Amino acid sequence: MPLFGKKPSKKTTRLFFATDLHGSEVSFRKFINAAKFYEADALIMGGDVAGKLLIPIVRDGGTFRARLQGVSQEFATEAALADFKKKIGILGFYHILLSPDEYAVMKDDKTAIEREFVKAARQRLADWVQLAEERLKGTPIKCYVTGGNDDPWEVLAAVEENAREHIVACEGQVVKLDDAHSMISLGYSNETPWHTPREITEHELAEKIEEAVRGTTDFSHCIFNFHCPPKDSTLDTCAMLDTSTDPPTVIMEAGQPIMFGAGSTSVRAAIDRYQPLLALHGHIHESRGAIKIGRTQCLNPGSEYGEGILHGALVNLREGKIEGYQFTSG
To answer: What is the mean pLDDT of residues 53-62?
Structure first.
């Protein structure tokens, strides 16, 4: 269902959806700029907005030392350090500048590391919200933000704390996208091998879904913005992992990884039962694709945030119908 040219009618609502940015500075800026570039009426960020690592940079006299992706690096100038920080930002990581003594104290203190990680993640998310408010100023465009399983609540709080006119923290809520269409958002996932902050059992996830949809009567004009994709939908296909190792390793057979559906049975059951107009998903970065489950069009745009590439999905809605959708990349 490709989209061509401009929106055919003022009654058409165009959504731009992206997910799993994982702290990537470049990807976020592309996401906000997508509103103007694609003439979108609304931006939807589908979860996993926080990065994964805090990189210590040790300042020792006039030099700086750090280790990134297993490689030790040293910088003699502020300009070289600035380039390194930019690279960290593209990857979605955070940094903290320490003296040798401070590093020696912190490196084995998990509580201190977690505290500084949350502080850095909250600050970046607050900066993103402020940037979005500035870029969208003077437009009617709203940016709807939910978390994912990788996003601690104390980090996500920065969205609501800094939102003003254009940013909407929509986790667990029903929001109106236009006069005809509503959206329900949920960022939790079923259990994974990585023990992330907001993964829960299928039973718990089913309860949260039921709580989120309670009161909604017209699902034919409703969108599910559920971070986790439905089980065995092709939007959740990834390599099976051996969780007996630390970290988990890919299970191989005849030299090839064994692939399986890692999505949620609870999400699948909810889509089967309620048949919303559209279901937006992420979580499984490598499973970019589209599938129909009954009348519900399900989309996962995928993610390559670590390369600074923004994958997205454009969807045109009109009076309870999907006029077209198109995946984007750039």
So the answer is: 94
According to DSSP, the residues that pair with 3 across neighbouring strands are none
CA-closest candidate to residue 93, choices 156, 31, 25, 194: 25
> Does 72 fall in a domain?
yes
pLDDT tens readout for residues 60-111: 988 999 999 999 999 999 999 999 999 999 999 999 999 999 999 999 999 9
The answer on 174 and 65 residing in a single domain is no
Per-residue model confidence (pLDDT) at position 11: 84
Q: How is residue 202 written in tokens?
A: 């299928």
pLDDT one-digit tens code per residue, 111-150: 999 999 999 999 999 999 999 999 999 999 999 999 999 9
Question: 24: alpha, beta or left, given left = phi > 0 and alpha = psi -120 to 50?
Answer: beta
Beta bridge mates, 325 = 315
State whether 45 and 72 are in the same domain. no
Whether residue 74 lies inside any domain: the answer is: yes
202 and 292 part of one domain: yes
Q: Are residues 43 and 152 in the same domain?
A: yes
Asked if residue 119 belongs to a domain, the reply is no
Q: pTM surpassing 0.90?
A: yes
Residues 259 and 319 in one domain: yes
Query: 87: which 2 tokens?
Result: 């690279």
Q: Say if residue 69 is exposed, middle or buried (CB neighbours under 10 Å; 0-12, 13-18, 19+).
A: exposed
How does DSSP classify residue 294? T
